[in-house]
Specification:
The chain has helices at 2-19, 22-77, 81-190, 204-230, 235-241, 249-259. The chain is an all-alpha fold.
Length: 261
Amino acid sequence: MKRMGMIFRAKANKALDRAEDPRETLDYSYQKQLELLQKVRRGVADVATSRKRLELQLNQLQGQSAKLEDQGRKALALGREDLAREALSRRASLQQQVSDLEVQHQTLQGEEEKLTLAAQRLQAKVDAFRTKKETIKATYTAAQAQTRIAESFSGISEEMSDVGLAIQRAEDKTAQLQARAGAIDELLASGALDDQSGLGSKDDIQAELDRLSGGTDVELELQRMKAELAGGPSAQQQAIEGGAPGTAQPHQQTQHRFDKP
């Protein structure tokens, strides 16, 4: 159970990190500091109000004390010592109240000065925090923009890399096809890819006969041309008399014997 709780807290913390915006956190902290400063200012105002109320009471008591003192003098001047004594007795009671109020007034005045100084210090801290907050927010915003730009360039680079790989594959395939086409042309030129099924092709014997026949025709044509140039018998007779290849030599020798006288 402890492990599950730790895993849950870790996942929750990670989710909070993704959801948290430092700028919003800074603004929230600044708002809380402003609220605290406002409370301190209200405290200073309350203390100042209490001090002012005591001052009014002191002025009122001091006025009554002065009046009683004046009444005592007048009563004593008229020979009413009893009235003078009563007036002075009441004045003494008021003086005690005045003394108590003066002590409270001094205490409140000291508290007011402390709170005023604390409010001033807190105001300075809040102002400094506000400046730092805005600086951090601006830096964070700039870093966020740079990160987005970098991620965009990274995506473009990956896309261009894929395009480059596609181009490379296309070039390799094109080169392979060109090499294959060249090889087929060479094989066709050499006759390695001629029809080997036997239809329309000649065997080796017929090929040799055709070669010999072709050679005989060339020899006959050559003899005819020589005969024409020399003014002799026709090429066919010269070929027969000369013993062209494929003619019967004994028959020619017999014919020559019968022609002799």
